[in-house]
Structure formats: C-alpha cells, structure tokens
Specification:
Elements: E1 14-15, H1 17-26, E2 29-35, E3 41-47, E4 49-51, E5 54-60, H2 65-72, E6 75-88, E7 92-107, H3 111-125, H4 133-140, E8 144-159
Antiparallel strand pairs: 1-8, 2-3, 2-6, 4-5, 5-8, 6-7, 7-8
Length: 162
C-alpha cells in the first residue's frame, strides 16, 4: 500500500530502524495526518505509546475530524520528533532526530486490550499517579476508544553533532 513512496532525500542523515524505535519509545507526542475520501488532509498532535511494534492512541468514542477520516480511510502518516537542539557553528542549524511512519489504523474492541493500552499511556505520561489508574480507566472505558496503528513503513533521519 505504501511501497511507492519517495525515498529519503538526504540519505546521509538516514537512521536505522532500531534508532527509529528508540525515538518512538522516548518521544512525547506525534502528529497524525489523515485524509478524507476527497483527499482533504488533516493533521493533529496526539499523545501515544509504542508497544511491541505498534503505536497506540486514545480518543473519544467515534467523534471528531480524525476519527471521521479514519472511518472513511484507515491509512495515516505520523511524524515524531525526538531530541532537537538549535545551534550556531558556522551558520544557523538545528541538530534533530525524527521518524515518519506510514500505517493503517484499527480500533481495538477487546476491553482487556483497551485497558492494557490505557495503562501503558498512564505509565508513560503520569507514572507517579499509577495508584489511581485502575479506578480512572475503569470509569472512562465505555466512553474511550483506543486505536492501534500497524506501521507499514518506518523511516527516520537525524542531524547530530559530529
């Protein structure tokens, strides 16, 4: 489905899949781009968690622009930025690391799977409040949708100090 995408322009900045996974494990947020059936794009920042080769996010139940788009067209693109550092050496530049993912989204319907992802999100973003996670997740489970992104192509690049 995504095999005909252009190749990375700056091959000298390409990073390995292992480095991409490290960035996905540390990054705080991603930007998800979707498109409706007419091809109109929409991008939105989201919190996420990377688990066992897949990316997960949560949302309100079947509401909003991104979910409407995904119900029509489950393909998406994600942009994740890792560490950045603006710097001046001989000119203005920025050291950075980033990952772009192309994949397909599906909604999780199994309550146990949804809970596991919501616990992983809580652990990632608020580990100091895990004592409240069970109660809060159980209370909101019926009105929370959880989505899985199956990556079909992952690529990354970085500009780092030499």
């Amino acid at each position: 489905m995504f095999e005909n995408l252009p190749q990375l322009h700056r091959k000298d900045r390409e990073i390995s899949e292992e480095e991409c996974i490290g960035i996905l494990q540390r990054a705080e947020y991603m930007v998800m781009a979707t498109a409706d059936m007419q091809g109109v794009p929409y991008a939105v920042p989201l919190s996420f968690v990377y688990l066992q080769g897949k990316i997960y996010f949560h949302s309100g139940m079947h509401k909003g622009h991104k979910i409407s788009n995904l119900m029509e067209n489950p393909r998406c693109s994600l942009a994740v930025v890792g560490n950045t550092q603006p710097i001046y050496t001989k000119n203005f530049t920025t050291y950075f690391e980033s990952v772009v993912i192309f994949g397909t989204v599906r909604e999780l319907v199994c309550e146990d799977e949804k809970k596991a992802v919501l616990f992983a999100l809580a652990e990632k973003y608020l580990p100091e409040h895990m004592d409240k996670a069970e109660k809060d997740i159980s209370a909101s489970l019926s009105r929370t949708a959880v989505y899985e992104i199956l990556p079909e192509k992952i690529c990354g690049k970085a500009k780092r100090a030499k």
